[in-house]
Amino acid sequence: MPSLMQGLSGPCLYSFRRKLRYGWSYNLERGFNVRKAILDVDTGIDDALGIMLAIRSGELDVLGITTVNGNVSLETATKNTCKILDLIHADPSISVYPGASHPLLRNPVFEHRVHGQDGLGGALADMHPSGRADLSGFGPDFIIEQARLYPGEVTLIATGPLTNVALALAKRPSLVHELKEIVIMGGAVQTYGNITPVAEYNMYVDPEAAQLVLQAGFPRLTLIGLDVTRRALLTSEHIDTLGESEIANYVRQSTSDYMQRYFERNGVQACAMHDPLAVATAIWPELVETTRYYVDVETRSELCDGQTVCDFQNRLQRKPNVEVGLKVDAEEFISRFIYVLRGTN
User: Fold this and answer.
1) pLDDT, tens digit, 9 for 90 and up, residues 71-111
2) pTM of the model
3) Would residue 128 show up in a list of annotated catalytic residues for this protein?
4) CB burial string 106-125: b at 16+ within 10 A, e below
5) Average pLDDT over the chain, rounded to an integer
6) Where is 244: in which H helix or E strand?
7) Looking at the domain assignment, is residue 90 inside a domain?
8) Do 80 and 44 contact (CB within 8 A), yes or no?
9) Which of 83, 193, 197, 223 is most buried by its number of CB atoms within 10 A?
10) What is the pLDDT, as a whole number, of residue 164?
11) Residue 312 sits in a domain of what CATH number?
């Protein structure tokens, strides 16, 4: 199709070719029917990379982004999200909707040691973001409104604590059937935690919210946890392949201290791509192999709060409720991530 391919490059060309390969139909006037998505983020370093992947891939129609207290305060997460959108010159129609400023029942737990005081490892410190934040709205309400407007069409990608999602469910329980699917970055079912010996950070910060979401009855809920994200590592060598550009320089600067902290804890000089892998799973589900199990979250333990308990042997005799990511094609994921970010900077 030379007339259609002419002028396409970078992520747009990649997206076009992939859709043709997998049998997507193309209409000259309407283009491809890209999937509608909402990102729910607590924008630190890896959330930012996930946002960049979601928008630059050309695979998702991002309806808006909701922010939540987590790695950093709600205010900082909102500001960081706006900065990233400005950095990648995202469509001005993509707005940011602040949500919950604290967990449902607990005090905030920030991750400044990993993400820096500003959440972006000191990158974009001098940038003054444009007015994308819709301060008149509320993140959970935005999720509800979009799911009602597009029933069965919206994929919710949650890469922070699940407070916003839990609040939306409490207000509108039918949300479980109105969303197309929900992809969550969180949990650790076969590996150790990253905030306590057994708990992954997002689950630990608001375990009550996580438990509510996992038990809500979503027909399609995928959990992308440390079991797969720790295998998806971005190295300095990968970043070098981005070349010299505004985006490449940002990625290099923002991940520098993160890589050092990861080396101190894990002995590997790399950035674990927790949140970008969740985004990639929504875009390219073939990258991650999942199995359906019953999963719950511990909320009443001095040692194990936030632990995701996966019933691999069906000992509890409860209906499986989560598609659990257990294997990942990490090399292919990193390759696609680099391709999308490199694009036509």
Assistant:
1) 999 999 999 999 999 999 999 999 999 999 999 999 999 99
2) 0.92
3) no
4) beebbbeebbbebbbbebbe
5) 92
6) none
7) yes
8) yes
9) 223
10) 98
11) 3.90.245.10
